[in-house]
Amino acid sequence: MSRIGAPEDLGPAVGHEDGAHRASQQPHRKVFHRCSSRSPGTWSALKSCLPSRRPGRAPIGYSKHVKPPRFSYAAPATVREATDLLDSSGGRARVLAGGQSLIPMLRHRLLEPEALIDLRRIDGLRDICLDDARRLRLGAMVTHHALQRWASDQGQDLLVDAAAHIGHHSVRAIGTVIGSLAHADPSAEWGAVALVLDGVCRVAGPGGERELGVEGLFTGPYSTSLAGSEIITSLTLSLPPSCTGAAFSEVAPRPGDPAVAGAAAAVSLDGPCVESARVALIGLAPTPCRAPSVEAALSGSEASVGIEAAAQAVENDIAPIGDIHGSEEYRRRVAPVVVARALRSALVRAEGDRP
After folding, report:
1. What pTM was computed for the model?
2. Which helix (H) or strand (E) holds 144?
3. Nearest to 284 by CA among 244, 337, 247
4. Per-residue pLDDT at 305
């Protein structure tokens, strides 16, 4: 494994201010905003506008605390090689897939692993396969965008709905579905989707492979039941059958922001009544979770009149934690709103799918 890390002579930290240099005296601040898209020429443009480095001093605005620590890097060719490297690291290595969550955490020193194990060279991890039993298998390197495009072509509305809420296009083009699950963000969309669609993870480790239901994956905020030397190599989702509609809804401060509350729902009809319903929530508990009270209230009821009462039952299924995106009280207020929206959309799609 090669040794890499941040070079000693780095550019400015975002937002850092030097008391001796006010904003009006630093024209390079305006350049940063124009170059904030992180295009290939951005860094060169920024460096050319920065004041010259003084002898014996770091560049103005430099802070070592916004650059990653030094780490070793490996890009194995097989899953077995990857798990062996993780095992030999003694829990001090991290798996790199898309990196949309991992890289920012490294830059802010929230994580300081000794090594990164990159999965990009392993064959088969970008595959999207659908079998005759409507089971969809996703490899560990399938991006949000790749799944969104496939789902759009195949008319899988729930997957399209959820993917559309994930960040922005640049995030969806790089971030991975399974990487999001493994990150275990309580507000991440795929957690609710995987719970509604009976997701099953294929997990590889030094001792071989095993299957793990998504309901057993999450143990807390940003915490999973995976061992330090295990990798999720694929995820299998059971797509909804005919006469079943599925949808996703969420509330966020702005498009692309983390969800304050969200719900995925799948509704199956038997005539005018709901035969069965599956509902899962994000942002409303320490982990993505099912909503059994909502499901029980809706099952067997007349579809057109049971949604509002069922949505109110969500209060029995949540334990929200307030943060900068939304207080506990606010999350409780919007929980029945997102559940009702997801159920209504799922019901409309189920009715449209009838023969």
Report:
1. 0.80
2. helix 144-154
3. 337
4. 78
